[in-house]
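Tokens as discussed.
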């Protein structure tokens, strides 16, 4: 049976986005609206010099009755107004280098020519908030269209903190954060998120919710070795990760809980090793349940790991597995938010497939957003392959529409 979610649906607030898109669509070439609505005024007030409600002015004889107001546009209306390529773009988040001297040409190509719906600030920067804000503003200006851009980064703390320098706190590693009270961690995370929001970041690919057993802490190359985990028990992970998430959301930054269904039992890192297999985790494992609790606490974004889970689906890495994504995460856990891959542009674990195959297989499995952070140059091949498959396969085209809907709805809530 699907688990009930405690979080509001990601479609809440869609009207804000739809209203903005409708206004843009109704603008004449000269820049002025083609139809201006009269000022309704403030409820309970009256403009000086106008008749009071108790003494209405009679309508002149023969005057036409006011035209009925148009119905609000629906999410389907917005999707119908988008080209296939624009819909596909919403399913792609592209890496954007943060170091001085690194070219962002591939990122700009993905934004301008392939309608990428988001960027991921990639690398390490100590330049501070002002420099990052200018960088983000530049990328946002490169993005065509009227929908908001997802601007993501990795701001976990410890060894994984992309943005540093003046204007950014020094965030301790997760094992240290786990020693704090829930109130303190949520308060600190609220501050960290406000620093991100101040430079235009609205999505943080954190917190880590991988459950690492104590005897695998140092051998666990991707998580435990770098102290990225919130302790070694399910209660510790859930308590600290949900506090971190609540703090992020309090300052308007959406957290992304990761790496579903857990990287705590492996030893190799999927970024640098191929064929990383977890032969422990099952659909009923505590490793999965911590994510269920994170979802119940309000997570709207979940990242899927690049490992293979032998006891769930031994055939393919998790982002390409319908059993992991649509079966376990959507159906069993009842998650109705946005599912994003870990980086599938340069990770060693997925190099046995071409970039085009990675993108198509992820969307086909039920993923909503494909992350190409380390190598943004692969995005054109990914975008073209998704669009080509959608043209040839009506069922896959429906999948594209469903994912674009989730992404647009989530953006409306940012």
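Sequence:
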């Amino acid at each position: 049976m699907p688990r009930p979610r405690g979080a509001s649906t990601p479609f809440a607030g869609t009207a804000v986005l739809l209203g903005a898109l409708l206004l843009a669509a109704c603008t004449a070439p000269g820049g002025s609206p083609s139809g201006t609505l009269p000022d309704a005024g403030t409820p309970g007030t009256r403009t000086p010099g106008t008749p009071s409600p108790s003494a209405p002015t009679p309508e002149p004889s023969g005057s036409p009755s006011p035209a009925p107001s148009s119905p609000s546009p629906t999410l389907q209306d917005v999707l119908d107004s988008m080209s296939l390529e624009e819909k596909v773009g919403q399913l792609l988040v592209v890496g954007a280098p943060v170091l001085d001297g690194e070219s962002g040409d591939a990122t700009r190509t993905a934004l301008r020519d392939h309608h990428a719906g988001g960027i991921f600030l990639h690398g390490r920067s100590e330049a501070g908030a002002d420099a990052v804000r200018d960088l983000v503003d530049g990328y946002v200006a490169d993005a065509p269209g009227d929908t908001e851009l997802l601007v993501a980064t990795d701001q976990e703390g410890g060894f994984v903190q992309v943005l540093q320098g003046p204007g950014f706190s020094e965030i301790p590693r997760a094992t240290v954060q786990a020693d704090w009270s829930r109130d303190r961690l949520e308060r600190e995370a609220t501050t960290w998120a406000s620093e991100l929001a101040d430079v235009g970041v609205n999505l943080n690919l954190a917190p880590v919710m991988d459950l690492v057993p104590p005897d695998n802490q140092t051998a666990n190359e991707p998580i435990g070795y770098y102290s990225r985990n919130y302790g070694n028990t399910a209660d510790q992970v859930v308590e600290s990760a949900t506090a971190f998430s609540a703090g992020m959301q309090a300052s308007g930054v959406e957290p992304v809980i990761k790496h579903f269904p857990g990287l705590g039992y492996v030893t190799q890192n999927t970024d640098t090793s191929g064929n990383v297999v977890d032969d422990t985790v099952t659909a009923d494992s505590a490793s999965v349940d911590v994510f269920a609790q994170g979802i119940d606490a309000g997570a709207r974004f979940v990242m899927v790991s690049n490992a293979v889970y032998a006891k769930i689906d031994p055939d393919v890495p998790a982002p390409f597995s319908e059993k992991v994504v649509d079966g376990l995460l959507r159906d069993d856990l009842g998650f109705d938010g946005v599912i994003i891959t870990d980086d599938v542009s340069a990770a060693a674990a997925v190099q046995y497939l071409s970039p085009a195959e990675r993108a198509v297989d992820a969307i086909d499995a039920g993923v909503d957003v494909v992350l190409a952070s380390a190598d943004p140059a692969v995005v054109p091949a990914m975008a073209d392959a998704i669009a080509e498959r959608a043209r040839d396969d009506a069922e896959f085209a429906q999948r594209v529409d469903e994912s674009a809907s989730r992404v647009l709805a989530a953006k409306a809530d940012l």
